[in-house]
Amino acid sequence: MGVLDRFERGVENAVNAAFSRTSRSGVKPIELVAALRKEADSKAAAVDRSRTVAPNEYDLSLSPVDHDAVVEWGEDALAREFEDALHEHAEYHRYTFVGSVTVRFSVDDALTTGRFAVASRTSRSPATEASSASLNSRRPLIDVDGRRFYLTGESTTVGRGTEADIVIEDTGVSRVHARFDVTEFGTILTDLASTNGTFVEDQRVKEVTLLDGNLITIGRTSIMYWDALPPMGDE
User: Fold this and answer.
1) What separation, in Å, do the N-terminal and C-terminal C-alpha atoms of the chain show?
2) What is the DSSP letter of 3?
3) Which residues contact 23 (CB under 8 A, 6 or more apart)?
4) Which residues are CB-neighbours of 189 under 8 A, at least 6 positions away?
5) What is the DSSP letter of 216?
6) Going by C-beta distance under 8 Å and a sequence separation of 6 or more, which residues neighbour residue 8?
7) What is d(CA 85, CA 91) in angstroms, rounded to the nearest whole number?
8) β-pairing, 203-205 with 198-200?
9) How confident is the model at residue 123 (pLDDT cuts 50, 70, 90)?
10) What's the sign of the alpha-carbon dihedral 47, 50, 56, 61?
């Protein structure tokens, strides 16, 4: 059973109960999910033959009454359900994201009850997915079970939750498991109090400066690390 099916059969009932307590509320959670999916489809763009990028940040504007119903249910919990639904939708259609998927709710006094608006944008995370044709960057590179990312920001988190910069679908990985910090002294890997720990070359670590070619293991996921290439002319 998919995320949307679970939402329709389980979570939606609980949310609708909260919505029904606000007698004038008109919007239904499943309508919002459908609108988010439609927005992803309409804004998805092919960047090459094998990669279609969909927006990763979504803003849902609601009427004051409908927003009150969202708050009553639990804004953060509902956002996570919507984000999970977007991840599954993207997987089904083979979309990719360039950053963490987020859904935010806001109030628009101009909207009447039952009306809503969706806006989206693509926002790059501190890690940029690398294509096979661009593996010559002067930035550190990690390979997460075959997916390669440049560490383009100062700090990049990895984990199972959508709040992580690089999302890893592995139940053995914590929601925000570890962080890569790119410094002038090298790339530092820090375990963020994960449940199952972070291992470098089979040694459990809390914080370590990585070496070129290091093998990192979190949960059942293997991550290879490579240092940035030196500037042209350097020895």
Assistant:
1) 55
2) H
3) none
4) 178, 179, 180, 181, 198, 200, 205, 207, 208, 209, 210, 216, 225
5) E
6) 30
7) 10
8) antiparallel
9) confident
10) positive
Encoded tokens for 163: 């709040």
Would you say the C-alpha torsion 208, 212, 216, 221 has a positive or negative sign?
A: positive
- How far apart CA 192 and CA 157 sit, in angstroms, is 9
Beta bridge partners of 60: 105, 118
CA 18 to chain centre: 27
Residue 165 sits at the vertex; the CA angle it makes with 164 and 171, to the nearest 5 degrees, is 40
Encoding tokens for residue 177?
């498991």
Residue with tokens 């997916």: 147
Task: Kindly state the average pLDDT of the residues 85-108.
Answer: 87
Q: What is the DSSP letter of 162?
A: T
Give the pLDDT confidence of 99-112 residue by residue, as tens digits: 778 899 999 999 99
Residues 6+ apart with CB under 8 A from 106: 59, 60, 61, 62, 67
Q: Please state, as a whole number, how many other Cβ atoms lie within 10 Å of the Cβ of residue 150.
A: 20
pLDDT single digits (tens) 163-207? 788 889 899 999 999 999 999 889 999 999 999 999 999 999 999
**DSSP 8-class letter at 120:** E
Q: Give the side-chain half-sphere CA count within 13 A for 97.
A: 27
Q: Which helix or strand (DSSP H or E) is residue 199 part of?
A: strand 198-200
Nearest to 29 by CA among 77, 95, 88: 77
Q: What is the DSSP letter of 51?
A: E
State both tokens at 226: 């490579």
Cα separation, 147 vs 132, in Å, equals 10
